[in-house]
Design brief:
Radius of gyration: 37 Å
Strand content: under 5%
Distance between the termini: 133 Å
Length: 696
């Protein structure tokens, strides 16, 4: 066979080997040699002077970057020198480019390839991770929620050591609660429920909601000033958590960022909540939407997108149950309805799952083993926390029958329909305008239930224009109407089919005397409806902007999407007073307990509880949702103090000292006791600052 015939016969094979170098072992060996463009190796150019990889439209590796599948570092045996030489001889006799020119061509084509990723050191990787964290949506949402809380609760943090929001009665009580829980858990946890107030009553820490979940904060600092500062900080943080929790829930359900922000702000700063500024246990509601968001995320469920099994995550389910248990530990006032809601969700979910299983629809398995375990463990934790917290309250109900509520108590606090459209006096926008409407309410502090006219309007629009499905909108509307009916207590057809059955048959429900606080759930549902409407509006704005070239009036329309959020914020502005807390009398820093401070009443005793945080000495004084019979008897018998009957009775109780505060006697039944003689009573009298101390 002649040389020309041999070249003609072998040239197609060589070209094929170069073009399919990755197809097989032999081809790979030949292709690797061609791909690297090594001098002296053939097969790198086809009959058209094109590189084999170039014919396919892809970049060619350079000399420094061996092609994938080459013999170097892959464990594949490279072609021998003899085979390479033979291939070079066969494929390079006709149309072969000089080695230098082939190298230059490969280098030119490598310019079109992707640049290699830079190898970052550990410090740069850490900085990049921190940067990603700082600009993450949830970081920005948390910072925004905190900034809004500082601004919209101002001037709470202006003088945080000396003032309290709304008044210094209930906030003083709750400042003491935070301090007591932290103090006793550090010193003697077994005595948690036997507080230093209401001496000698037992289980006195359970006379009202305890805010026990804030106990870690109570471990920092001592004394009244630290207690006031701690309360103010938690007051601001409670608003921030409520905003963030409702935002997270709306986002998990499928709302956009601006829509979720409307839901968060509307939930945390609804005008009716301004009347609750002195009730931290009501404002501490952010754990409710946050726990629901975590549980929905863990179960892969969204209102907008439905159930997505691949998005299940047992870790989020655990976190949701833990947050729910923590929310319950803040108090049963709003925690008890939340507990029953979670129980209802569990029952409905199990019923739906069983129904699908029986009907043969098993394509979507609602539980994996890990998620089922998370629900079992988390649900058990939640139930255990609820049961342990309920024990002291059942003890109190057993020892103090007058602590239990009656339907007559519910009647007093049940608001009429007009309450849903009346704002409290603390509302900067509507407070003055609604003064006449408030005067018509029997007990306006618990009956001004306006969630915001803007929120009403957005929710109404969400019934017709929304990203939620029609059936979901109808379910949300039904939830709004049901919770409103419950909030009316016995005013809604006597409560026969709404509040009264819950009061009579659900354990613990008869301890809730203010049905208007069910408005919390109405506000949350209205926020979800509003979020659907705002999200749909924002989506329509993006569509309109995309349809125009140039994108006009895109920027202005996008700015208009912030208008609902701004209007909701404006309705949340407040004029909440921040009175100065009475200064602690010097006597309460030195006098030992058990002691009695006179004058004594529900409101007067609450600052006394705050003053006791210096030493936590036992005292008869205390304020709560009811007055124990023993405390009422002490107040009655000491109207003539110091006299023989009152002194003998106090000694019987174990009282060692009585502190009379001169500055608070005016206008009280104890106004003249300071002039009563102590002769023949076996007691001593001592002036300590503005107080008079009687030692029994």
């Amino acid at each position: 066979m002649t040389t020309e015939q041999s070249d003609a016969k072998d040239r197609p094979a060589a070209a094929q080997a170069g073009g399919d170098g990755a197809a097989g072992p032999a081809g790979a060996a030949v292709g690797d040699g061609a791909g690297t463009g090594r001098p002296g190796e053939g097969g790198g150019v086809t009959s058209g002077d094109r590189h084999p990889t170039t014919a396919k439209g892809g970049p060619t590796p350079t000399v420094d970057e061996p092609a994938a599948g080459s013999g170097e570092g892959t464990g594949r045996r490279p072609a021998t020198d003899g085979a390479a030489a033979a291939t070079g001889e066969q494929g390079g006799t006709a149309g072969k480019e000089p080695p230098a020119e082939g190298t230059e061509q490969a280098a030119a084509w490598s310019a079109f390839g992707p640049a290699p990723d830079p190898v970052l050191g550990r410090p740069r990787r850490a900085l990049r991770a921190v940067g990603r964290f700082l600009v993450h949506e949830w970081t920005l949402a948390g910072v925004a929620a905190l900034a809004l809380a500082v601004l919209l609760t101002w001037p709470t943090l202006r003088y945080p050591l000396y003032t309290l929001p709304q008044d210094y009665w209930d906030p003083s009580l709750q400042s003491w609660q935070l301090a007591w829980s932290g103090h006793i858990l550090l010193t003697d946890p077994a005595q948690l429920w036997q507080s230093n107030t209401f001496f000698p009553e037992k289980w006195s820490f359970a006379f009202s909601d305890t805010l026990l979940g804030y106990a870690p904060a109570g471990m920092i600092g001592t004394g009244p000033e630290a207690a006031v500062l701690r309360y103010n900080i938690m007051f601001v943080l409670a608003h921030a958590l409520a905003t963030f929790g409702a935002y997270a829930l709306a986002r998990q359900l499928g709302a956009g960022r601006i829509g979720a922000a409307v839901a968060g702000v509307g939930y945390a700063y609804a005008p009716w909540l301004l009347a609750q500024a002195g009730h931290l246990h009501i404002l501490s509601n952010g754990g409710i939407p946050l726990a629901l968001a975590m549980l929905a995320r863990g179960h892969g469920w969204s209102l907008r997108y439905g159930y997505r099994p691949r998005r299940r995550h047992a870790g989020w389910a655990y976190a949701g149950w833990v947050v729910a248990a923590w929310q319950l530990s803040l108090g049963f006032g709003i925690g008890l309805p939340f507990a029953y809601l979670l129980g209802g969700i569990v029952l409905v979910s199990v019923a739906v799952w069983c129904g699908r299983r029986w009907s043969g629809r098993r394509e979507k398995r609602p539980f994996g083993l890990r998620l089922l375990l998370a629900d079992l463990v988390g649900g058990a934790l939640f139930a255990a926390v609820g049961a342990l917290l309920a024990v002291p309250y059942f003890k109190v109900a057993e020892l103090h029958p007058n602590a239990q509520r009656t339907l007559g108590d519910i009647d007093i606090y049940s608001p009429p329909v007009s309450g849903f459209f009346t704002a409290p006096a603390e509302s900067r926008i509507w407070g003055g305008l609604h003064e006449g409407a408030r005067a018509a309410l029997p007990w306006h502090p618990e009956m001004t239930l306006l969630p915001g006219f803007v929120l009403y309007a957005l929710a109404a629009g969400g019934l017709f224009f929304s990203v939620w499905r029609l059936r979901h909108r109808l379910l949300l509307l039904a939830g709004v109407l049901v919770t409103m009916a419950l909030a009316m207590g016995t005013r809604f057809f006597g409560g026969t089919f709404t509040y009264v059955p819950l009061f009579e048959y659900l354990p613990g429900w008869n301890g809730l005397r203010t049905p208007g606080r069910m408005m919390l759930w109405t506000t949350l549902l209205l926020g979800v409806l509003a979020a659907g409407a705002v999200t749909a509006f924002c989506a329509r704005v993006r569509e309109l902007a995309a349809e125009r070239v140039p994108a006009w009036p895109g920027p202005w329309l996008r700015l208009a999407t912030l208008l609902p959020l701004l209007l909701v914020l404006v309705e949340g502005l407040n004029t909440t007073p921040h009175p100065v807390v009475p200064v602690q009398p010097a006597a309460l820093r030195t006098v030992d307990g058990p002691l009695l401070v006179l004058p004594s009443s529900q409101n007067l005793d609450q600052p006394v509880m705050l003053w006791s945080t210096s030493r936590f000495q036992d005292m008869v004084n205390g304020g709560s949702g009811f007055t124990p019979d023993g405390q009422a008897r002490v107040r009655e018998l000491t109207l003539g103090f110091p006299d023989q009957p009152s002194v003998d009775y106090l000694r019987t109780l174990g009282i060692r000292n009585v502190v009379v505060l001169r500055g608070q006697l005016a206008g009280t039944p104890w106004e003249r006791i300071i002039d009563n003689p102590v002769d023949g009573l076996g007691i001593t009298r001592e002036e300590v600052g503005d107080a008079v101390v009687y030692r029994l």
